[in-house]
Amino acid sequence: MSSSDDVRPVLASIHTESGASLLALAEASPVLLIFLRHFGCAFCRQAISDVAEIRGELARRRVRPVFVHLGTPERAKPFFDYYGLGDVERVSDPEAKIYQNPVFQLARINPWLTLLQPSVWMGWLKGAIFKHGIGAIKEDGHQKQGLFFLKGAKIVRQFRYRTIADEPDYLRLVG
Predict the structure, then answer these.
(1) How would you label 6-45 residue by residue, b for 16+ Cβ within 10 Å and e otherwise?
(2) Looking at domain 8-174, which of 3.30.420.10, 3.40.30.10, 3.20.20.80, 3.40.50.2300 is its CATH number?
(3) What band does 4 get if pLDDT is binned at 50, 70 and 90?
(4) 74 contact partners, CB below 8 Å, separation of at least 6
(5) Superkingdom of the source (predicted)?
(6) Considering the chain, what is the average pLDDT of its residues?
(7) Residue 117, pLDDT above cutoff 90
(8) pTM for the full model?
């Protein structure tokens, strides 16, 4: 599916923890859809922190951040509260059905193979572990993250992680 394809049916079927459909949110304002791995991942905690740091600029650009995570709402809440994003829309997807939907089709990787990637070690050494910690993998550790910039029922741009340690430029992605 190309980024110009209308993804209306898929977005209409996805609902946030507050009950809003992703389609309604994307039609109300552009959405930066952020797919996380698991809450034990220092890089996913870093992603939440990074979005918290640019939240004001996203608001100025009228872009709404929406997170998709693999945990339950109860598991996710303390992480988002900690980074000051307790009020941000979130989608709980413990079975990774949205991640695997053909519209998004995010890759899976053996979590042990990530330990062999030099970029992951460099990311940890640059501070991801020290700033954000590392914890137990209680969600699907095989799932990779991704970013999608939505305007209405269209994916305008996307970022697919090559490694779990990639550092996307969120503001560049939203233009």
Answers:
(1) ebeebbeebbbeeeeebbebbbeebbbbbbbbbbbbbbbb
(2) 3.40.30.10
(3) very low
(4) none
(5) Bacteria
(6) 86
(7) no
(8) 0.82
